[in-house]
């Protein structure tokens, strides 16, 4: 083991994901996250903590939260705000995500009487078109989720010329890897693989083809300063809105030592 | 004039076959009226979730009261999927009109303005749009180049139902910054509200309170229902009870479990 590796703090997989989310949000002024999205919220809170000394602090809107929500015009304001270009990033998941960046939040196996029905599209059929930086986030990386072609398109990855579209998927982050979405090609490119996994693992668990380097990079670990913020003020802040999640993450961190 | 009734009287104002608009889980769900409607037996409802549904929608679907559900989603949040909704949609026993959140708002806002439709961005190329023949794509009449845009027809609920912290004796209702509750009331033919309490003062008397008020002009009847949103939270009043929602989620996994939960909860929810 090299000296550098010995001084690098050990990192929980979820900490690495949260730090990756913070990197993906770099440069954003206003990030919105869904009501039950603790990981995206944690990433946004981490970036805000990293930028606490900046002149232009980042805004975070957590839907359904009273404390982290400055909207005063009801449920429609988030969507109006997005339509005006005032939201830089939003997170979307999906029961299925395909290689063309299409997402399915509705169901698998037929429609409307789907064999497996999920909650529904929520705001995705709108936000995916108008938020510049859509980050697709799904921890489960399996062929069940990452399919060749979704059974139902809640929101398409790309739109033909002539269709109004100021936003769309930019990245896909999973429990195994990070991808970038090439909007011109309508395809994903593998950016990095999380430590402990191989390109073969990613291929085995992905039902669509994607572009990649011959030797893909490894997702970097957060540095000591970033980890300090995450384990300190960010975890405290997170506990106010997502107490269960914060407890679980704290236990994961404690188990490292 | 806004009538002040008891919960039973409020329930009698909901007719079978009505188009009923209800808010989303954090916005002021009237669980008190949900239980009342379950006791009363109105059915064939067209439920409009503004813009998503939760336990309230799932209970009405599980009890067989909903013919059509128009919504961007139905979920029990952290407790997972809505079991009766998922079962009914898979079996085809409820008609589903899948929407997206801003489209539900757009339809209600069109009704609020008394116009036939409202345009919104997004949606083109999605299967949400492909499965909504009642929505249309038009050419933006103001664009120089081709600019297709979706138009959402006005949604006019027969009745809007929600829960709020307080009303005054004139029927003015305090909705704070939950403006979608006002939109629902503007759009609906009739609005029924349950409240934690009725206050003696005039909510329109000061600018501070008036700014968060839905005037009685839009409110047909109110009833007092303490903790009427529980187990959902009511902003500024009380937190939700995720344990109870999780208990419901477990029970409703089977039709038998749902029936037992419903029978017990309906009996318990009868006001003294």
UniProtKB/TrEMBL annotation, chain A:
Keywords per UniProt: Transferase
UniProt-listed InterPro entries: CoA_trans_fam_I (IPR004165), NagB/RpiA_transferase-like (IPR037171)
Gene3D superfamilies: Glutaconate Coenzyme A-transferase (3.40.1080.10)
Domain of life: Bacteria
Molecular function via GO: CoA-transferase activity
Name assigned to this protein: Coenzyme A transferase, subunit B
From TrEMBL, chain B:
One Pfam family linked to the record: CoA_trans
Keyword Cytoplasm: no
Swiss-Prot/TrEMBL keywords: Transferase
Gene3D superfamilies per record: 3.30.30.40, Glutaconate Coenzyme A-transferase
Example of a GO MF term: CoA-transferase activity
Listed name of the protein: Glutaconate CoA-transferase, subunit A
């Amino acid at each position: 083991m090299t000296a550098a590796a010995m001084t690098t703090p050990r990192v929980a997989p979820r900490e690495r994901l949260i730090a990756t989310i913070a990197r993906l949000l770099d440069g954003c002024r206003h990030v919105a996250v869904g009501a039950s999205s603790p990981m995206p919220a944690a990433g946004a809170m981490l970036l805000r903590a990293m930028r606490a000394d900046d002149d232009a602090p980042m805004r975070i809107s957590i839907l359904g939260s009273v404390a982290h929500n400055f909207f005063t015009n009801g449920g429609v304001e988030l969507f109006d705000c997005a339509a005006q270009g005032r939201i830089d990033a939003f997170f979307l998941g999906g029961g299925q995500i395909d290689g063309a960046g299409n997402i399915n939040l509705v169901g698998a196996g037929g429609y409307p009487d789907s064999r497996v029905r999920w909650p529904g599209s929520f705001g995705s059929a709108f936000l995916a078109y108008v938020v510049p930086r859509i980050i697709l986030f799904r921890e489960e990386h399996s062929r069940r989720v990452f399919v060749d072609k979704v059974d139902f398109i809640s929101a398409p990855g790309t739109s033909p010329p002539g269709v109004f579209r100021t936003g769309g998927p930019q990245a896909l982050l999973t429990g195994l890897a990070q991808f970038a979405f090439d909007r011109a090609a309508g395809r994903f490119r593998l950016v990095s693989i999380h430590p402990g996994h191989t390109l073969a693992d990613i291929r085995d668990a992905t039902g669509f083809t994607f572009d990649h380097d011959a030797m893909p990079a490894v997702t970097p670990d957060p540095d000591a300063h970033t980890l300090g913020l995450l384990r300190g003020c960010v975890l405290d802040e997170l506990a106010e809105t997502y107490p269960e999640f914060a407890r679980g993450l704290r236990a994961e961190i404690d188990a490292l030592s | 004039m806004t009538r002040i009734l008891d919960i039973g009287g409020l329930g009698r104002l909901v007719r079978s076959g009505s188009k009923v608009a209800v808010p989303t889980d954090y916005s002021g769900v009237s669980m008190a009226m949900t239980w009342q409607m379950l006791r009363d037996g109105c059915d064939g409802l067209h439920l409009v979730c503004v813009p998503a549904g939760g336990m309230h929608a799932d209970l009405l679907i599980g009890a067989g009261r909903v013919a059509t559900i128009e919504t961007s989603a139905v979920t029990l949040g952290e407790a997972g999927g809505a079991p009766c909704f998922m079962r009914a949609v898979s079996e085809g026993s409820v008609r589903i009109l899948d929407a997206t959140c801003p489209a539900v708002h757009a339809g209600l806002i069109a009704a609020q303005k008394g116009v036939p439709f409202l345009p919104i961005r997004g949606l083109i190329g999605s299967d949400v749009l492909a499965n909504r023949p009642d929505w249309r794509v038009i050419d933006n009449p103001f664009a120089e180049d081709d600019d297709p845009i979706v138009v959402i027809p006005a949604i006019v609920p027969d009745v809007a139902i929600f829960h709020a912290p307080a009303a005054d004796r004139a029927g003015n209702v305090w909705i704070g910054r939950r403006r979608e509750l006002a939109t629902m009331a503007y759009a609906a033919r009739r609005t029924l509200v349950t409240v934690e309490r009725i206050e003696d003062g005039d909510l329109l008397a000061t600018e501070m309170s008036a700014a968060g008020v839905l005037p009685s002009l839009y409110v047909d009847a109110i009833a007092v229902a303490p903790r009427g949103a529980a187990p959902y939270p009511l902003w500024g009043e009380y937190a939700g009870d995720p344990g109870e929602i999780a208990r419901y989620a477990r029970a409703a996994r089977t039709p038998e479990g749902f029936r037992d939960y419903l029978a017990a909860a309906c009996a318990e929810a009868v006001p003294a």
